[in-house]
Amino acid sequence: MEQLNDEYSEYGQQRAPPAHYQQARPMVDPEAEGEVDPNLYPQAKESTHKIRGRYDIIEMFCGSVDQELLFVKTFYFFFYSAFGSLFPLMGVYFKQMGMNPGQCGLLIGIRPFVEFLSAPFWGSYADRCKKGKTLLLASLSCWILFTLPLGFIQPPATSCLERRNATDYELKVPQAPRILKRSISDTNWALDMSSEHLSEGVEQYERAKRAVRPLSEAGVSPLDVRYATNYNAKLHGSWVSPLFSSIVYRTEDIQKAFFLLILLVIIGEFFAAPAITLADSAVITILGDDADRYGHQRMFGSLGWGLAMFFVGIALDHSTAFPDHPCGPEKEEKNYTICFATFSVLMGAALLTATQINFKYDYEEPTATEEAPGEVKPSYEDEMQNQLAAQLQLPLLAAPTKPAGSFINV
């Protein structure tokens, strides 16, 4: 106790520890007063004094770079580039398909909710089964398999809006149906009759008054076709046309496409959600004590997102060619096939890069050693006797080894 009391002064201030304790962190007396002596604590690690952003860039371009972290940076770049090339534009793509604002919002907003439910499940499963890399590659594959079909699911074109002059629009049968070949129906027959202005002798069909196409307003999409010269409320009441498009869809067909799309989004997001969570977990494990460098790995994802949005946006502005457009494209219509193709290529590159990311787990090594086939485990008394013989350096005092199956006659 006297030695412990000598380590503190009479005023409660802590003295310097002995020389052989300099490497250990000293104990701090919570009741001590006065200023803390910085000489009692070890120096901060070297990474604390570095300007991390400048050091990381200089090391990347001028010095040696950790190859493992180079794959991490490349993965983030391709993964977020794939996102930036498609998903910010999905809302406009769904509106061009004839979806209303509620349907567009649900198709986009359901993804974070599904990810919130599925990511913890897959994360715990990966930690429990030690299959993080396998799940990462599988989830990246699901991003491609469940996102690419979104570009092929579209409602069939029911009619086309043909502009005759500044105020005259007429409904016409599309020349090249997109999805399926349909047999002639009463609706199409009535449309042909009205397009040829054969209203005489057909009392149930009445021509609507000529009207100018309504101006586009925020939140109003799609538009009804009542401004067409041959519009009939009984036949064309459920027909709508997206903004800046000449295609006319039936509301029932749009709803069918919507339910198919949302089903595909939910299933795909459930299996693809853990991708970025597993990648972040692997990166933090790789960094170890340098976890503060995570931001410098992740910033390459932001760089990829910005570059992809910039170049894909320029390409989308010039993608006005539609090889299978049933009505002829308008000037404002865009072909989003280039976005889906770019997403698939960039996500495929992220998948290839993810094969080089290693997942590290703390496996518990078995402590119990296998017993020799001809020996049995010594008892507690024999172990104590062996320890005493080792301390006294008297091998003859050690307990004899008993062969397996032996017994003592009493």
Automatic annotation (TrEMBL):
The chain crosses the membrane at residues 75-94, 135-153, 257-279, 299-316, 336-357. It comes from the Eukaryota. Pfam families: MFS_1_like. Its main location: membrane. Keywords: Membrane, Transmembrane, Transmembrane helix. The keyword Metal-binding does not apply. It is a multi-pass membrane protein. PANTHER family: MAJOR FACILITATOR SUPERFAMILY DOMAIN-CONTAINING PROTEIN 6 (PTHR16172:SF2), MAJOR FACILITATOR SUPERFAMILY DOMAIN-CONTAINING PROTEIN 6-LIKE (PTHR16172). Belongs to the major facilitator superfamily. MFSD6 family. This is Major facilitator superfamily associated domain-containing protein.
